Structure formats: C-alpha cells, structure tokens
C-alpha cells in the first residue's frame, strides 16, 4: 500500500499518479476533454427558489465589509495543455506577466545577513528583516540557517528568497503571541500586490504554547503564511511546520460570516501555490477564503494536529477551498491522514466555494478523501444554497480511507457530495484495505440535496466489509438528477450501486462487478 510521509517530495506526484493509472485509463488530453464535455453538456440554468428574507437594510449597513454574490452560468473548466502536455488554468499567462513585472520593479537585491541577521536559532532577527525589506521593491535573500523572528510583514513588490526547504528556516519567536503570523503581507486593509515567498521552511513554533489546548486566535491569524487582500502572489518551494491554524492561507482582509450570497471585500486574487509541504496544522494545510483565481499545484499536506478545534471534532483538511472562494484550480496534489483530503465547502452563514476544478490528486488514509458540502443547506427544512455550484474532479485517487481521531464519529468515505449543484467526477480510482472494517458503510455517498451530479469512469476495489460502492440517498433530503456511468467494482461488493427509491431523476449506465479471478493492475 502506498504511503507518503511528511517529507514526501510533491514534485513526484505527477509521476506517482501516472504509475497508479490503470491500463484502461485514458490519456491526459482525453481525460481533460471528457471532463470538459461532461461539464459543458450538463450545464443547466439554475433558478433560485424565491425568498423574501433578504434584509437589505442590514446588507447596506454591512456593505463596506461584503459584496453580493450573483450566480454565474459556468460552462467550461478552463484547463489548458501546452505542447509538452503540462496542465494549467487558462489565466496563468496573466500571472506569468505579473511575475516578470515584479522583477521589473525590483531596485536591489540584499542579504539579510548584511542587516545583522544571525541564523543560529537563538537571535531575534525581527529588526534585521524589517530593515532589509524596507519599503519593498527588493529581493531579500536568506542564507542557510535558522532565523528567529516575531513575524515578517511584506510590502508590495517584494521577494523573500531562501536557499530551499530544510536549508533556510524561519522560526517564530518564543515570545510571539498565539495570534501571530510567521509571514504575511503588510497591509491587509488597503491590500498589497506582487509578493513572492520562495525556498524555505517555516516553523510556527507551536511548542512555545505548551499544553494550551486551542492553538489559534481566531479569524485569519495564527498561520505560517497568510496572503490577505493580495493581488498577484506566489508561495513556492515552502515547508510549513505545526502552525496553530493554517500552513498556507489565501484570504480576504477578514473572514466574514454575513450570509450565503455574500462575499468578503478585500479578497486575494491571482495567487499560485506550488511545491508546498505542510504538517502538524491546527486546522487546514492549504486553505482559501473569499478569494479568486487561485492555482494550487504539486503540494503535499499531512498529519494535522487538529488543535484549533475541540478534541475529537477537528475538521482538519489537507486542502480546503472554503467560504466565498471562487475560481480555484488544483493540480497533482497529495494529502494523507487528514480529516478531509480535499474539502470544497462553506459554513452555513457564508457563500459556498464555487467553480473549483481538480486534476490529479492522491488521498491516502484521509477520513473523507473528497468532501464537497455547504453546511446548513442540506436538509429539506434548510434554505437552498444560493452558491454551491460547479465542481469538477478528474483522474483522482482515494487509497484506504480510514477512521480518524481527528473526528472520532466520522465514517470513512472516498467521496461525499452534499448540497452541491453541477458536479462532475470523471476518473476516480478507489483502493481499499481488504483487512479494514468499513462496517458496511458506502464508499461513495451522494446525498443531502445534491443536484446534477455525474460520476463517470469510477473503479473501486478491496472493500471486503463495506456496503454499496455508490449510494445515492433518498428520503426527505434526497439527492436528485444523478448520472452514474462506467462504474467498475471488484467481487468484494455484493451491491455496486444503491439508488434511493424516491430519487426522481437518475441514470445508471454500464455497471460491472468483476469476478474473483479477474486481476487488475493496481496494487
């Protein structure tokens, strides 16, 4: 069984995914084209149930914090392939141009050592970094060593450049408050632009808090790197160690919870996160809030502490696309031993993440490998979600989902879709642990008012103690408008697909249970 530790090199993910591919798997261009066609052809004009509960007086009063979210009828995944079959979102050229512009604005390159920094793991280098950074338009080089600081604030047009993971380390000072960021941008309110952080390990130094149970201070604080209200940003070649909240956070000035159909002002946009490692995080590894045009690639998140939550109720995800996020692309990432591998969601009083596209992901021993939900909009007595729309996931893997101490009563699932409308899963390979007790639970659950959901090219094996491979739940909170095609299971399943009897619209095509003597190429 494949295992990945906290030092896994995520630049190997693409190769691992290619190695995991079954002989019957489609090529990358065909995979993407199939997902594109399924997504486009299944696009249906959505009409919101009329409601007269919107409080315009409150909205106007709070409008300096939030903006209204309108429904967009999205019909494309916006993935593109270059001549070498590298995959990118179509807007990446905008970010590439801004990267060149960042270097055009740089006036000097400095070394933090020349400003008095000492990388001995003891000296407080806060003032040395402040002097080296100045007012920006600078590359600040950080040699090998461990540099203690009480936090670094980056102005616009700044590059912070280390010698690489495990070579250059920034460590938060023992006297830093629980609310402190290790690195963030200088002006969360007015915003900043064109900032890059590259090539270092980032130690939030959680040990300084001792046995304190909760490790985060609230809102978007207590993380290793937070971009809040940043336009054009890069987090690359970084390792984040035991942050109180998040390893890497792409955020707005503040998180707001002022209702579904609203989004915080001051969100970040055009941010690329690449070759990131993170572990020991109190909440999520990589997370986004109220931000747009985010590209997360070649990254690995694992082994959260969950300590920002009440013990046993830690919704600690490897990658979480959260409240108010939209236009987010994920490519060739991996997660292991988290509550959720990839969670696309929102809280009940915030807009759901929307227009999220995943290509290539490995989830190992996560409790819920892929979990898409809008909390508080699931039951028939709940208001219909105004914003939970548009997700695709292509060529993804779920390996041995497991129970977890993080969320003690949560049963393992490879995929759960709840409350979302217009979801396409094309190419999901699921490999269980045949010796594990899955207690007759389903492997895939489509439930809680999920609508217009397509599952295509699904392969599942090694779940001797599970219930049905795919369960579409009926009842008062039933899913509807579900299409299941090309579902293949091994002989360990007595029932491949279980569709609730009161589901009004469902289509099931080409479901196969392989005989016991049928060998497959995946181990």
TrEMBL record:
Family matches, as InterPro entries: Pectin_lyas_fold (IPR012334), Pectin_lyase_fold/virulence (IPR011050), RHGA/B-epi-like_pectate_lyase (IPR024535)
Entry keyword set: Lyase
Pfam families: Pect-lyase_RHGA_epim (PF12708)
Rhamnogalacturonase A/B/Epimerase-like pectate lyase domain boundaries: 110-340
GO molecular function, one term: lyase activity
Lyase is among the record's keywords: yes
The name this protein goes by in its record: Pectate lyase
Organism: Fictibacillus phosphorivorans
């Amino acid at each position: 069984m494949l295992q990945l530790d906290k030092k896994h090199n995520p630049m190997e993910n693409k190769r691992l995914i290619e190695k995991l591919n079954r002989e019957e798997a489609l090529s990358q261009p065909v995979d993407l084209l199939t997902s594109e066609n399924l997504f486009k052809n299944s696009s249906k004009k959505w009409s919101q149930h009329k409601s007269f509960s919107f409080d315009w007086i409150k909205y106007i009063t709070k409008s300096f914090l939030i903006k209204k979210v309108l429904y967009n009828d999205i019909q494309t995944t916006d993935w593109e392939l270059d001549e070498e079959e590298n995959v990118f979102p179509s807007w990446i050229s905008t970010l590439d141009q801004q990267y060149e512009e960042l270097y055009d604005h740089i006036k000097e390159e400095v070394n933090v050592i020349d400003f008095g920094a000492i990388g001995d793991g003891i000296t407080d280098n806060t003032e040395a970094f402040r002097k080296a950074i100045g007012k920006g338009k600078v590359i600040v080089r950080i040699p090998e060593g461990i540099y203690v600081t009480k936090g670094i604030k980056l102005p616009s047009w700044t590059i912070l450049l280390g010698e690489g993971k495990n070579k250059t380390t920034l460590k938060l000072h023992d006297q830093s408050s629980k609310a402190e960021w290790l690195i963030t941008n200088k002006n969360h309110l007015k915003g900043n632009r064109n900032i890059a952080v590259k090539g270092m390990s980032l130690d939030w130094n959680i040990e300084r808090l001792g046995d304190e149970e909760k490790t985060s201070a609230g809102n978007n604080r207590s993380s290793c790197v937070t971009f809040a209200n940043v336009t054009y940003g890069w987090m690359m070649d970084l390792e984040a160690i035991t942050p109180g909240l998040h390893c890497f956070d792409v955020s707005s000035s503040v998180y707001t919870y002022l209702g579904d159909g609203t989004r915080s002002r001051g969100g970040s946009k055009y941010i690329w996160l690449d070759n990131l490692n993170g572990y020991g995080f109190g909440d999520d590894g990589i997370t986004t809030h109220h931000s747009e045009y985010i590209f997360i690639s070649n990254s690995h998140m694992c082994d959260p502490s969950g300590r920002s939550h009440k013990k046993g109720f830690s919704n600690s995800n490897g990658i979480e696309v959260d409240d108010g996020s939209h236009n987010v692309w994920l490519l060739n990432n991996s997660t292991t031993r988290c509550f959720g591998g990839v969670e696309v969601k929102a809280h009940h009083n915030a807009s759901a993440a929307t227009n999220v596209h995943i290509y290539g992901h490995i989830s190992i021993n996560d409790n819920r490998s892929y979990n898409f939900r809008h909390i508080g909009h699931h039951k028939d007595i709940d208001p219909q979600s105004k914003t939970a729309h548009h997700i695709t996931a292509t060529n993804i893997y779920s390996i041995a989902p497991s129970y977890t101490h993080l969320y003690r009563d949560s049963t393992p699932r490879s995929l759960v879709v709840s409350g979302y409308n217009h979801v396409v899963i094309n190419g999901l390979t699921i490999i269980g642990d045949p010796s594990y007790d899955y207690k007759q639970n389903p492997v895939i659950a489509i439930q809680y008012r999920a609508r217009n959901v397509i599952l295509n090219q699904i392969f599942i094996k090694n779940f001797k103690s599970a219930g049905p491979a795919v369960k579409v739940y009926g009842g008062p909170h039933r899913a509807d408008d579900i299409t299941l095609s090309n579902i293949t299971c091994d002989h360990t399943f007595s029932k491949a697909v279980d569709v609730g009897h009161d589901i009004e619209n469902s289509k099931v095509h080409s479901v196969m249970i392989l005989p016991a003597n049928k060998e497959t190429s995946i181990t």
